[in-house]
Amino acid sequence: MKVDHVxxxxxxxxxxxxxxxxxxxxxxxxxxxxxxKDSVHIHNKNIEYLNSLGRKVKHLYxxxxxxxxxxxxxxxxVGQKIKLNDNLTxxxxxxxxxxxxxxxxxxxxxxxxxxxxxxYSSDMGNSITQDLKPFLKNNDLPKKCNLFITxxxxxxxxxxxxxxxxxxxxxxxxNNIKQxxxxxxxxLFATFSFARSQEILHFLWDNxxxxxxxxxxxxxxxxxxxxxxxxxxxxxxxxxxxxxxxEIMSMKNIKINKNYDGTIACLSKRTSGIYLASxxxxxxxxxxxxxxxxxxxxxxxxxxxxxxGSEGTIGYKLLDENQKTVTVDKQVIRKNAIVKQLKTxxxxxxxxxLLKIFEEMKCNKILVHxxxxxxxxxxxxxxxxxxxxxxxxxxxxxxxxxxxxxx
Length: 407
What we know:
By secondary structure, this protein is an alpha/beta fold.
């Protein structure tokens, strides 16, 4: 569950005639509120700016309408059958993508009284690194259904990695951080407010909490949304996870900043330390203030935490060794800082694990959506893979505008 999954929910408000319920796990709904509040705030600012240029743009929805929508939210237990009416029953299944993520089974009674089971995966996590990440539930996706609708975000085997790769990358990161701090460098993580930031904080705590040098290193956690989600984690995590997160956030060297003035004050000191700022794609947010200050300095380090965009994006240009300058917020910056990318921190299921799920899923058809470029090619490869295993399940890409299918 990320804002690209829930960002348009405020449209379902009383003013637009919505009278239904919005169901989800308690963790999902509470974190979604943080994401949506931030999204609506940005939406309002964008509308104000466009209207100041004489554009006369209307809101998609307003803040009061957002709160109307919140009143329709209702938390349900994961794993519990919920009968919505005589023809539809649903069940949520734990999903290891991010905290609160779930897949869903829909049991639909047809006019002939036959029950059809549709399983929708939503985004799924990478089980290879699950024990290296905190707070996640095991993926308990059912192995049988009539129709399986799934993501295939990482449909390219070149983006796959092994458990050994993930362990080695984390070991190297820990060693590098210790070395960089000993050289009085500033280390900037370009991260995501939800999930990735909390994983980085856990990584720092897990590797360095007992080392004396680390207790003097400031960890600047910068951003309103990031810190709001940290607050929500305290409220929604289960007992042991909540205790662990409280211990992480009780580190004496964590410095929380929510406002822009605090960011400017922090940067003006040029203090050696570890800085977390979003967004991880380096396209918007507090990171746009940090990057110009870090990239030009040989005394600084910029770490991109996972996939950070395709050709033409700032993240791509940061990693391109042939490109000596990067334009950030209309400023041309020479790349003097050390720039690193963490390749094994993704929260999406990998290519080979996804094919394994296809192999084990007993169903009539698999619909693939929410995928990288080459969705059709991936489906052909998936069918070839299944055929090699003696499986004839149909694998069909969902095309643009394809919103209907026959049960």
